[in-house]
Hints:
It contains 16 helices and 15 strands. The protein is α/β, with parallel strands linked by helices and about 475 residues long.
Amino acid sequence: MKLIFEKSIPERPGFQVPRSDVGKKVKIDKKYTRSESASLPEVSELDCVRHFTQLSQRNYSVDTHFYPLGSCTMKYNPRFTENIANIRGFACLHPLLAQLPNGDHLTQGALQILYETEQSLCEITGMDNYTMQPLAGAHGELTGVMMMAAYHKSKGNKKKYIIIPDSAHGTNPASAAIAGYTTISIPSNAEGVMDIDKLKEKLTGDAAGLMLTNPNTHGIFNNQISEIAELVHAVDGLMYYDGANLNAILGRCRPGDMGFDIVHLNLHKTFATPHGGGGPGAGPVGVKKELSPFLPISRVGKKGDGSYYLNYDYPQSIGYIAAFYGNFSIIVRAYAYIMLLGQQGLQEVGDHAVLNANYIKERLKKYFKLKYDRTCMHEVVFSAAPEAQKGVHAIDIAKYLIDKGFHPPTVYFPLTVKEAIMIEPTETESKQAIDGFIEAMIEAHDLIKKKPEVFKEFPQSTPISRPDEVKAARELNANYFNKKL
């Protein structure tokens, strides 16, 4: 091939070029051309299709298998919400359109969905206002703590720390630190919830607030929550609700009624939208009216004639925390899910999630240790500490389950349970699917008693069996594949 060649710009459907450039010769510099032919495989279309189809069959998803991941609700994403989000008027809407002069009238449908989703979430959680901007749960969490800081600053409060239970999600202390606070950890009591007596010892006027998940990561509901809220409010602190586990209490109780002032939600965990991988995600944040002035801008307003508009007139706002108005396509999915189920349907979601988790707990507690043997909510946490004494750790059981066709549960979290195995079935799994998982866990228990040494060989059905995950994390080589190429 020539190292420098000339080529005419063609006219073809879908490729528009200025009339003056049609037929013009284009020179390509030598440094951008190949000196030898590309080493590319030549295969038939059929072989190519089979190759990528077989690769796709290695993917594990909730569409194909049970996904009992306890730290992050993995419920089925119904196809009807996908279809609605793909309606051309939603999917092709440019995010800057509403900002054009008189652009509001071109985006009324989208603004209405944002507004009505906010109103629905207010009713579900007992909040007064919401922002739909945050692009993930952790992003929403930071947004909430930033509003907490803005609230205290507006009152002249000089708060220093945020209180967090020892069973909290790892993002809680991270969000507090980014917002400028130190954190104080409160241990769990024998019942698996935050020790209220220890809280009283640490709670002072320097506390900006308390971040709490209820039910918590042990899968246990804290029935002292009203008393805790009174204690925090007595020192002019705010109650922050980590909404990761809202799925368990839908339609039964609301964070706002428990005494919480700020709520962040994970739409994927509670309202059946896709998970992330850096996105898509959505982490709306709701607040009581005292904190509403600090919500991010812009906010969707509704005029007397029933039309919608973007309102920027909030001088105490913390400002923009995301480009545009949130992850709109995810919000559309959540909106459709809420509209379809309604109040009764959402209550059944929570009821069945709790039922499934307690079914697993009762079936497996004869085989695996329960640190907190009491009625759980959406998830149950076992301990593989007795098995670890035989050389089989929680991670080994997780690897075994891969060969049985199940995604492993969360292991080693929460940190308050030694050799933790956290299982969350969600409401979307059938009894048949759950029974299959239970039988695999029982088989693991029986095999540990007979041949514990074989667990170091699992999984045997995957292309890579036992990578050194700690080494990979600590010695990340981002250039590895480039070197291979």
